[in-house]
Amino acid sequence: MVSLYINNTKVEVPEGSTILNAAQKAGYNIPTLCHLESQIPKGACRVCMVEVEGAKSLVASCAAPVAEGMKVITNSKTVREARKFVVELLISEHCGDCKTCDRNNDCELQALAYSLGIKDTRFEGECLESIIDDSTPALVRDSGKCIKCRRCVTVCNEIQSVGSLFAQGRGFDSTIGPAFEQNLAEVPCVQCGQCAAVCPVGAITEKDHIASVWEALDDPDKFVVVQTAPAIRAALGECFGYEPGTLVTGKMVTALRILGFDRIFDTNFTADLTIMEEGTELLLRLKKALVNKEKVALPQFTSCSPGWIKYAEYFYPDYLDNISTCKSPQQMFGSVAKTYYAEKIGRKPEDIVVVSVMPCTAKKFEAQRPEMNDSGVQDVDYVLTTRELGRMIQQAGIDFRELPDDKMDSPLGMSSGAADIFANTGGVMEAAVRTVYEIVTGKELPLEKLHIVPIMGLEGVKKASLKITGTKPEWGFLEGVELKVGVAHGLGNAKKIIEAMRAGEEFHFIEVMTCPGGCIGGGGQPRFTTDEVRKKRIEAIYAEDEGKQLRKSHDNPEIKQIYEEFLGEPLSHLSHKLLHTHYVSRMN
């Protein structure tokens, strides 16, 4: 441990900590526009400068290590004036009208300028030409608003291992973007939106679907249904001043009714459906490998996360056969809504508009994939992020905090606790194990054993080993098999687990989530998502699961009903047509 003084307050921190870490522990907030938690400091923005006794000049606190006996001042006149000067220079090159910017009242540069007392611009700096890149279905880049903080570069390269964004050029002419001034659609961008989640200004945002959704709601000839992903209920409240991790499921449903949606359903319903299909697919692959001695693509990877799917298509096309053929719960819902549900209410598929509320920007891309039209029309029409839904509610003048609770509609609104935990890293795996165990053994899994502790939490790569015993006769080939499962969240960690496989490590089933923490840390969630925020959202989702009577996907009566009335059984001909898909290599 190292002892030092922050504004005359003694604080002890582990050796190797930065001054920024020490100040945070002492209760002092030092602003920064470039720093990302747990990443190598860049010191790019220079906003976090502090005075250190004996130093010749101000020091960037995010990059400066602590030393024994160090004395730091974070709020002297010199520091305040230097920070103000730096921010004024950033503003002088920041092109955009705050009044119409997507990030107005949610902009770190704007908030920092206010906190520093900047009321006018002393410097009328020249701005680079503003180039708008709206080439992808999910993201929009505005180069004129970029302050070159490099957060997007850090998250794209060091956390997601995608490498679509780089700092290019020097001095005033430097830019941030894809190589050779290409658009995002021309490079291996998975559209995960983590760049938009960490951008402090409006330089990268999600492609807005709000106007299209309003248009659909205003059309009397359209029957508009909405599905809400499990992660939304633990994050939407943050748009209205609630603490991260506050569950607002009932208020969300009420708000959606007021907005005018004809039916409010739950993506959790098709998360339960996913478990039935994906779990059965895993068992079939294991049977072919262990009984028939066929060469089967194992381990099986989950397929819920569209950013992960596109990542595999770009970087690991040799493993596409290992990915479950199941569509994501979002896409299963669209297909079911425009077939099974359309028949129930006597509507044509083309007259039903399916709107998704997702924590993920890549879902906008996924909805427009050419494979996703097995209902005869586009299965999912529009995708709103959590942030977009928050803005829609505000546009409608709804006092969210005063709303009463309501419930989802039937028959696509009932779900188990296993579906809720799809939001968390490790949740899909846990949900699958709950069902597969009971299918194989015929025994009820005790409540105290529902959680698989080794695959919970925020460790980047997690592993568990489950020995199968007491199988039913038809599953006797699994008796004594040690099922080896892995979980990765953040595409950089997906890369690690794949490289471990290539080095010979054995797995049977692997869950991959694109975003750190899983969907609760998605690129479309309320900003700014730190590990502390992720943990609170994760705890809320587990609480939602633990508060339900139904906690296993196969126990959901509405899932049983859809198989009895429509699909027949998991992996039937009809379920293959509507609920399964294929993927293609994107390597050129």
Provide a descriptive summary of the structure in words.
- There is one protein chain.
- The protein is an alpha/beta fold and 588 residues long.
- Among the domains are: 74 residues, Ubiquitin-like (UB roll), CATH 3.10.20; 118 residues, Alpha-Beta Plaits.
- The chain is built from 18 helices and 18 strands.
Describe the protein's topology.
Elements: E1 2-6, E2 9-13, H1 19-26, E3 49-52, E4 59-60, E5 71-73, H2 77-92, H3 108-115, E6 132-133, E7 139-142, H4 151-159, E8 166-168, E9 175-177, H5 194-198, E10 204-206, H6 210-218, E11 223-228, H7 249-259, E12 263-266, H8 267-290, E13 300-301, H9 306-315, H10 329-345, E14 352-358, H11 362-367, E15 382-385, H12 386-395, H13 417-420, H14 427-441, E16 461-467, E17 482-489, H15 491-502, E18 509-513, H16 531-546, H17 557-567, H18 573-579
Parallel strand pairs: 1-5, 11-12, 11-14, 13-18, 14-15, 17-18
Antiparallel strand pairs: 1-2, 3-4, 3-5, 6-7, 7-10, 8-9, 16-17
Helix pairs in contact: 8-10, 8-14
Quick one: overall form?
A: globular
Quickly give the structural class: alpha/beta
Calculate the mean pLDDT score and round it: 95
Strand order of the largest sheet: 2-1-5-3-4
Number of helices: 18
Q: Can you name the CATH architecture of the domain at 89-206?
A: 2-Layer Sandwich
Fraction in helix = 25-40%
